[in-house]
Design a protein that fits this description.
Layout: H1 10-13, H2 25-35, H3 38-56
Length: 70
């Protein structure tokens, strides 16, 4: 049987560093966004606007016209 340790032994009473709280994905994104320069943020906004316009505009539908009868 192992000997009992006294309650004030160094291995049990040593101060431990508190673990860093983990960031959620949203918090990590916010932190990264805030670290960007304002010009970089503007470039991201422009790229986002272009992508939004590209995918939200209606696309021409080819082959949907009724075929002419001969």
């Amino acid at each position: 049987m192992p000997p009992d340790r006294p309650p004030n032994s160094p291995s049990t009473s040593s101060p431990r560093a508190a673990p860093k709280p983990r960031l959620t994905p949203a918090q990590a994104i916010v932190k990264a966004w805030r670290s960007q320069s304002s010009s970089s943020q503007n470039k991201w906004r422009e790229a986002d606007a272009k992508a939004r316009a590209q995918f939200s505009d209606p696309k021409p539908q080819r082959g949907r016209e009724p075929k002419a009868k001969m």
